[in-house]
Amino acid sequence: MPTLFVNKERVDISANVPGDTPLLWILRDSLGLTGTKYGCGMALCGACTVYVEGQPVRACQTPLSSLKTGAEITTIEGLTTKEGIAVRAAWEKLDVPQCGYCQSGQVMAAAALLARKKKPTDADIDAAMNGNLCRCATYQRIRAAIKEASKTLG
Amino acid sequence: MRTERIVNAGRRGFLKASAAISVVAGSGFTLGLWVRDAAAQGASPAAAVDPSAFVRIGRDNTVTVIAKHLEMGQGTYTGLATIVAEELDASWDQVKVEGAPADATRYNNLFWGPAQGTGGSTAIANSWEQLRNVGAAARAMLVAAAAKQWNVPAASISVKNGVVSGGGKKATFGELADAAAAQPVPTDIKLKNPKDFVLIGKHVPRKDSRAKSNGTAQFTADVRLPGMLTAVVAHPPKFGARVKDFDSNSVADVPGVRYVVEVPNGVAIVATSFWAAKKGRDALKMEWDEGTAIKFSSSDILAEYKSLAGKPGIVARNDGDAAAAMTGAAKTLEAAYEFPYLAHAAMEPMDCVVKLGKETCEVWNGEQFQTGDQFAVAQTVGLKPEQVKLNMLFAGGSFGRRANPAGDYVIEAASIAKALARAGNYDVPIKLVWTREDDMKAGFYRPAYYHTLKAGLDATGKVVAWQHRIVGQSIVAGTAFEGEMVKNGVDATSVEGASTLPYAIPNLAVDLHSPKVGVPVLWWRSVGSTHTAYSTETFVDELAQAAGKDPVEFRRALLARHPRHLGVLELAAKEAGWTKPLAAGKAGEKRGRGIAVHESFNTFVAQVVEVAVRGKEFTVDRVVCAVDCGIAVNPDVIRAQMEGGIGFGLSAALYGKITLANGAIEQSNFHDYPMLRFTEMPRIEVHIVPSAEKPTGVGEPGTPVIAPALANALAAATGKRLRNLPLTLA
């Protein structure tokens, strides 16, 4: 029975869950963590971005069988890092979201960037965010909000 | 219609239920009225007599605004609440917003007669007076309650920032809530003088930003109900194909699969989770009857459209005598334009939850067209519309897709619930989930169009003749909107922006061919303007060049009678520094600047684009956007919609192309139907024209202007006039 730690909570996955089940659907359908979104199923849009062992991954292309037992998973619901808090505050301050569907993934990607690099350059931001699509094209505000969050992190 | 129950996974046992469900085509009702230009015509929606339909004041001091329009990203929850809160003098912090149920008697779109729905950038425009009256009436009731309690004249009471004061006393709205509700609804409502606005025109935070930044915002995809099953549907590989046969045995071994259900447009696999349903669909053995399917390709459609363009169409506008004036012109120019089908590709693929009981049907959806879908669901499941309850959720984008008069995905979800109910399974919530591939291939595209344009200039460079022909499918033909939106054979959505060309050209003709093709089509953010703004604004640019005039000056001379077009044109040009030379590019780089101006849905937008070209590659560096949408209710939401509308339009300008090969859609996901990415977003500056006119919508009008402004910038940089979308310099 594989065991995961999702947002620091122990989750035992029953043996009859097929190993090809993407982490995305375990989170959404089995655990009710619906903040992580399905957008493409092909790792093309980033709406399903979560952390595995602290690293951003596409949950739609992360089958259960690829996860090590005891793997630490962080979703938007469990994003309690100081970078995560700063990013969400900046998102609110600049009213980044429009439809909002992609924004969990955007927030996860942005917080991962700031955790890695406190003062990202525009090029750093480009590299970190180019895999996250936003059909509402909130990109200009995402860039500004990452800079704002970086500023508040000091 | 067949329902097959997988009694026990792994065994070959089925409960066969033959159920004859009549397939519903269309929504089965007709709109009595469609006042598309109501705002322009000065139509004044009647005041709502009962504010309780739109605002609820709680004892806990919350002010809940009930939004009759779908929040799909355009910021309407914030906008509608701002209008109510302004007249109510509520504190913005105490205001909450919830989606209204489907109830056209209270929540109809005042520009759509008896129908409730969101579209055509009408939410703020149709609600403006209604919600001001609601807020003012509720305020008057609070004041009356306080006056009675404190025994002071109502006139001595003031309300500010959620606090009622008078006679040395103060009370919160919450403290007065019960007493205010007992007051009669006032008949003589006094609205604020706009100079006293404290929220309208100022910055207020969006009401949905927090929930949309922390993962708690609820979309249809996120609905979870006890006993809920998830359905995935195998759709026809070609439009018009039908289910010939399917083998339920082929999915019997897939864990979690519960039912196999034939629906009007395919076969649904109903399972305990999305992944189980999808694996069931992957395993399903089935055959399609392609006898009735379309089998042509995009090139065939284009060839037919080109041939049609050689013949006169139905007249949409005819000023003067364009043909004669053309003959007498000193110089003529001609151009032809090709526009592909476009998918909406909202980030949330289509989905819908339906729970069907014996006497009721409950629907959860990010619903853009409540009345139509309420009728469609009722007809599908065999209940009355009022027995269909609709729960409003956020939509993860829509851009017109969730306002489908054909009700496709909603009917599909209802059909699955109905099939289960026929087999005795009532009250099982069914969540229909389309994959990205389903969403991209199942149609309801912005139609493909072909335009021809011809114009004549006299010896002084003045435009004396203009002939515009448009060929493309009608969006509203065969829908509930046809009666009001097709006049004399002309679908207004096919020609808007062309038949309404503002330029002073004495001899001007626009005509239209609306061939029936069989590819499902639908409105797509800014509708007709998605193509008419492109052809007209790039062609005018060519005419300016032919006349040897500056593009801004040339337009200015033709817009003397259109001050609002002129206003945005001049503001955009000024803020972009149009009269100053564009800074040179890097080595090996050519730069260019282009402008376009266009009105859609009574909102006026001009954009100046700066582009840098390196060989066949180009980047959009900067966009200066000027917008006149009347009174700016939420300036920051307006800026956001211009930014987003520009980005959305750029996706289409750079990449958008849905194609058919032998009847099948060739694109499937974001790798072959790309959209604008983070690094491609230009720097956008938005300038709002100060105005005392009634507010108009901003969800759509930013979109159609960017492609022609970009094409004009590319022409300035390279000398090449691009006439086919998407734009490539190859």
Summed over residues and divided by their number, the pLDDT of chain A gives a mean of: 97
Number of domains of chain B: 3
Tell me the number of strands of chain A. 5
User: Which two chains have the most extensive interface, and how many residues on each?
Assistant: A-B, 56 and 62 residues
From the structure provided, what is the oligomeric state, counting identical versus distinct chains?
heterodimer
The rounded Rg of chain A comes to 15 Å
Helix content of chain B: 25-40%
CATH class (first level) name of the largest domain in chain A: Alpha Beta
At the third CATH level, what is the topology name of the largest domain in chain A?
Ubiquitin-like (UB roll)
What's the alpha carbon Rg of chain B, rounded to whole Å? 27 Å
CATH class of the largest domain in chain B: Alpha Beta
Strand order of the largest sheet of chain B: 2-1-11-12-9-19-16-17-18
Structural features, described:
The complex is a heterodimer of chains A (154) and B (730). Chain A has 154 residues and is of the alpha+beta class. Chain A has 2 domains: 76 residues, Ubiquitin-like (UB roll) (Roll), CATH 3.10.20.30; 72 residues, Orthogonal Bundle (DNA polymerase, domain 1). Chain A is 37% helix and 13% strand. Chain A has a 5-stranded mixed β-sheet with strand order 2-1-5-3-4, covered by helices on one side. In chain A, strand 1 and strand 2 form a beta hairpin. In chain A, helix 3 crosses helix 4. Chain A is globular, with a radius of gyration of 15 Å. By secondary structure, chain B is an alpha+beta fold. Chain B folds into 3 domains: 174 residues, no CATH class; 159 residues, Aldehyde Oxidoreductase, domain 4 (2-Layer Sandwich); 319 residues, 2-Layer Sandwich (Aldehyde Oxidoreductase, domain 4), CATH 3.30.365. Helices cover 28% and strands 24% of the residues of chain B. Chain B has a 9-stranded mixed β-sheet with strand order 2-1-11-12-9-19-16-17-18, sandwiched between helices. In chain B, strands 14-24-21-20-15 form a 5-stranded mixed β-sheet, with helices on both faces. The radius of gyration of chain B is 27 Å and the shape is globular. About 6% of the residues of chain B have low confidence. Chains A and B meet through helix 1, helix 2, helix 3, helix 4 and helix 5 of A and helix 5, helix 6 and helix 17 of B.
